[in-house]
Design a protein that fits this description.
The chain is of the alpha/beta class. It is built from six helices and five strands. The protein has one domain: Flavodoxin domain (Rossmann fold, 3-Layer(aba) Sandwich), CATH 3.40.50.360. 34% of the residues lie in helices and 20% in strands. The chain has a five-stranded parallel beta sheet, sandwiched between helices. The radius of gyration is 15 Å and the shape is globular.
């Protein structure tokens, strides 16, 4: 199974990236072909709304989104990791998802999408708006569904997530992919 993990935090020692790393580790140990991409060093321009991608099947903007969207197309499982900023996903992740418009109405392979979130706030409803944002994107792909969300609340400083139970949940979710889940 091809698993693509996309980490959208730009911060070194990011808590959401730690979740992504644990998911990837579990997936690799389960025998999946797992690739992790960090948006930290990628050039991603905003979608201009020109819709040329719907005519040509590819975005006319030449940057790193083209290759990432191609990998998203070919993945069986997508894993999106983001810090929660102002109760939403990171701007980098939202920009990438906007630029993934060429995937719409194609033979994309992904069916399962996992969402990994971290935030300083630790209230039960903290991830709700970020989840709704991603669910809105997922809903545009009729063969796909949001499989699971893993939330690590109460983590703000770099590497503060160490020892958090969400790390184990992320690892176990990746590992379970080897069980045919």
């Amino acid at each position: 199974m091809n698993v693509l993990v996309i980490s959208s935090s730009l911060r070194n020692g990011s808590n959401s990236e730690a979740l992504a790393d644990e998911f990837a580790k579990g997936s690799e140990e389960a025998g999946n072909n797992t690739e992790k991409i960090s948006l930290k060093d990628k050039k991603l321009a905003f979608c201009t709304g020109c819709f040329s991608c719907l005519k040509t099947g590819r975005c006319c903007i030449k940057d790193d989104a083209f290759n990432i969207v191609g990998k998203m197309h070919d993945a069986d499982v997508l894993v999106l990791a983001s810090p929660i900023y102002y109760y939403g996903v990171s701007g980098q992740l939202k920009t990438l998802l906007d630029r993934a418009n060429p995937l719409y109405d194609t033979d994309y392979r992904f069916k399962s999408i996992f969402l990994l979130l971290s935030a300083a706030e630790n209230e039960e409803d903290t991830p709700d708006k970020a989840i709704r944002c991603i669910q809105g994107w997922v809903d545009c792909f009729e063969r796909a569904h949001l499989e699971k969300t893993i939330f690590a609340g109460g983590v703000n400083e770099r590497n503060e997530i160490a020892g958090h139970s969400a790390l184990r949940k992320a690892y176990e979710a990746g590992k379970a992919l080897g069980d045919g889940k």
